[in-house]
Amino acid sequence: MFQIKLNDQLKRHIEELKKSNASNKELDMILEKDCVSIEALIKMYEDHWQNRVPLSQLLKPLNFQFKPKRIARSDYKPEFKEYLENLKLQQQEKDYQQLISANRELSTYEDEDKPLTPAQINRELKEQVTTVFNILVSVVSVAFAFWYWSGSSSGMALHYRVLISLFFGILILIAEVVVYNSYLQRVSDAKAKEKVKTERTKVVKRIVI
Q: Which keywords annotate this record (predicted)?
């Protein structure tokens, strides 16, 4: 939007109008701004100067005055600027957390798909063999204990001694397997939680260079 800048002749005619209309605030504003809108100029010309002076004469020389370009955020209050800055920092932190989370999930999937190394395979085999051996030792020990007790203390028949030994041996076997599976499940859950754990980073202060 632009306005017409007051030249000497136009300014003189407006000052003459001002003398006869001292209370006219619009004329004061026009003289103060040193420019007039096209609508206001046409209205003044039709009301006061149309039969006295040509419009072309009033507009010589003709200069335009453009409104200054508005600078974004220049009219914001300091509190509102600070609020916008905080929103920007929060959004940056949110984007960063989403990026970190996505990278961790991708890393987790890559770790799950990664083949085991020979050392890891050897360690797992050793753990499994040791576990099986310990379970067998427990089962045999319990079965032998009941076999010995049923023969020396109670004097049971042979077939009862066999059944009791087998029963308690199988019972111990089931218990050992349940306990071992529970242990493996807890270890697996702990690893999964550790992999998906999100690192939270908070922006304390930002320095603009």
A: Endoplasmic reticulum, Membrane, Transmembrane, Transmembrane helix
